[in-house]
């Protein structure tokens, strides 16, 4: 029986490595930019210019770990 058959979704199944994203080289989304700046401010860090969508995602993960927001 799969998770779909049992009525439960597997959230890990939907998570892809940013390196595998088809749109990973595009600029970050507005939501990513906003959240990244919020996390960076809380961590006392700067957001580098020119990040790609995939790089922004990885940086968000790092800052979530630093600030405790990702738990």
Structural account:
With 71 residues, the protein is an all-alpha fold. It is 41% helix and 0% strand. α1 packs parallel to α2. It starts with 29 loop residues before the first helix and ends with a helix.
Order of helices and strands: HH
From the N-terminal CA to the C-terminal CA, the straight-line distance is: 30 Å
Radius of gyration: 15 Å
Query: Structural class, from secondary structure content?
Result: mainly alpha
Low-confidence stretches: none
- Please report which band the strand proportion falls in: under 5%, 5-15%, 15-25%, 25-35%, 35-45% or over 45%: under 5%
Residues in helices, as a percent range: 40-55%
Oligomer: single chain
Average pLDDT = 84
**Number of helical segments with 4 or more residues:** 2
Basic shape: globular
From the structure above, extract its key features.
2 helices; globular; 71 residues; single chain; mainly alpha
Element layout with pairings:
Elements: H1 30-43, H2 53-67
Pfam families: DUF3072 (PF11272)
Protein name: DUF3072 domain-containing protein
Organism: Micromonospora sicca
């Amino acid at each position: 029986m799969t998770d779909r058959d049992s009525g439960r979704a597997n959230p890990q199944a939907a998570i892809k490595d940013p390196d595998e994203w088809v749109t990973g080289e595009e600029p970050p989304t507005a939501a990513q930019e906003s959240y990244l700046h919020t996390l960076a401010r809380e961590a006392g860090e700067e957001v580098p210019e020119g990040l790609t969508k995939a790089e922004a995602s990885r940086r968000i993960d790092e800052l979530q770990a630093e600030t405790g927001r990702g738990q």
